[in-house]
Amino acid sequence: RAKEAGRNRCHFFRQDINDQAVRRLEMEAALREALVLQESGGGAPFELHYQPQVSLDPRRLYRVEALVRWTHPRWGAVSPAEFVPLAEECGLIDRLDSWVLETAVAQLARWREAGVPVPGVAVNVSAARFARGDLPDHVRAVLATNGIPANDLTLEITERLMMSEEIDVHDGLDALHALGVTLSIDDFGTGYSSLGYLKRFPVTELKIDRSFVKELDIDAANRPLVRAIIQIGEALGLTVVAEGVERETQHRMLEAEGCAVGQGYRFARPMAAGALADWLQGEGRHWTGHQPGACISI
Ligand code: C2E
Ligand code: MG
Ligand code: MG
Ligand code: MG
């Protein structure tokens, strides 16, 4: 009996692995197809949503982060947590990131044309996009095409990429820094513990990973960690952004610890471009002008 049960279980596992492999292959093919469609202008399976980052004191819109969304004709919305890693593995992420960069900067220009005072936009840059080497040129061209100052663009780069031994991060980061874009370290605290790169590289911002913020107001052990990260930022003159702020209690604690900027459902969820413009005019928010440099109190 036990043997039989074992065999059955084994069978189940194999079936499961097989299903996963099939789904993966299907998804890879669909992703490839979606990207071709998007690049050729024949359709728009990808869309960007924008999530506000809010300076905490005084409370103002700091910038928005562009987050990619994919809608499949049969599967519906697929989570980036699923398709971004897959796009990385099958060598498609650099093309997707290029599209995201172009689209986000063009959107910023469109908001400004329409008088919507969005101070800046951040995009996520994968290691593969970075490694291609043409990122600084591409960034320069995209900014020029849209008439956006480099200052108003932020590139979010993971800590893991900073530590890469295969990719020459140094020259790339220097070239991007020379352009004047802001370099931000995404998911800070989840990569490697060596902090030497913080002074070697021209980064100006740290994003505290959501995993540290998640239980900030529940598990007492998180507070000293978050405090330490904020102090590292302070000591090195880096702006600290906390991601995944969901509750008022987390918000208050971050504020008390001197965190400069927050991002999370507490303030706003990621939204389509049109919805963001509406949100910015919603209750309790007011614009102090329509020119560049104008700000939105929220
Ligand atoms: P990330 O860059 O760390 O982005 C933050 C993620 O946290 C987003 O998930 C956002 O929707 C989510 N989030 C924000 N506030 C809250 C909150 O209060 N609570 C919770 N539970 N979640 C919150 P999303 O959009 O699913 O993206 C997941 C990840 O996928 C991103 O993490 C980023 O690593 C990657 N990604 C998204 N867009 C792109 C892209 O255009 N290019 C690349 N290379 N990666 C991307
Ligand atoms: Mg990010
Ligand atoms: Mg992040
Ligand atoms: Mg994160």
Please state the CA-atom Rg, rounded to the nearest Å: 21 Å
- How would you write the strand order of the largest sheet? 1-2-4-5-6-7-8-9
Number of strands: 11
Estimate the global geometry from the Cα principal axes: globular
Percent in strands: 15-25%
Distance between the termini: 65 Å
How many helices? The count is: 12
Q: What features would you describe in this structure?
A:
This protein is α/β, with parallel strands linked by helices and 298 residues long. The chain has helices at 2-40, 80-89, 93-113, 127-131, 135-146, 159-162, 169-179, 197-200, 210-214, 222-236, 248-256, 273-280; strands at 46-56, 59-72, 76-78, 121-125, 153-158, 182-188, 205-208, 239-243, 261-263, 286-287, 296-297. An eight-stranded mixed β-barrel has the order 1-2-4-5-6-7-8-9, surrounded by five helices. Strand 8, helix 11 and strand 9 (261-263) form a beta-alpha-beta unit. It is globular, with a radius of gyration of 21 Å. The mean pLDDT is 90. The structure holds ligand C2E and magnesium ion (3 copies). One magnesium ion binds at residues 65, 124, 156, 186. It comes from Azospirillum picis.
